[in-house]
Amino acid sequence: MKSLSSTVVVVAAGLLLAGPANSQAPSPAQAAPAGNVENGKRLFTKETCYFCHGTAGQGGRDGARIAATALNLQGFVRYLRRPAGAMPAFTEKLLSDQQLADIYAYLKTLPVAKAPKDIPLLDQLRDK
Known about the structure:
Elements: H1 2-24, H2 28-31, H3 37-46, H4 50-53, H5 73-81, H6 97-109, H7 120-127
C-alpha cells in the first residue's frame, strides 16, 4: 500500500506542475494564423497552383480538386510541406505558414463543384 500511495502522490505532483504550463500553451485554433483571402488568391496565381489544380481549384489532369477542401489548416500545411506523388514540396523557404494560411483562406471561399446532373448541358448530352 505504501508504494501505491507514494505513486499517487508523485502522479498528483506531476499533474499540478504540468497544469500551469499546459494552460499557458496556445490552443491549435489560437496558434493558426488567420488567412488573408486576397493575398491567398494572389499567391495561388503567382505560385502557379492553378496550373495543376485549375483556376477555380476544380482539379485537373495533374492536380486534385482543392476548392472547399475538407482538410483543416494544419492538415493543408502538413500536406504542402511533405506531399505525396508528383506535387512539389513547399518548404518554409518557399512559402511561409502565413502565406499558406492565406492560400487556404482563398481556397475556402471557392464554391464546391456542381454535380454533373446539375449542369444543364451535361444533362442534355446524357439524354442523347
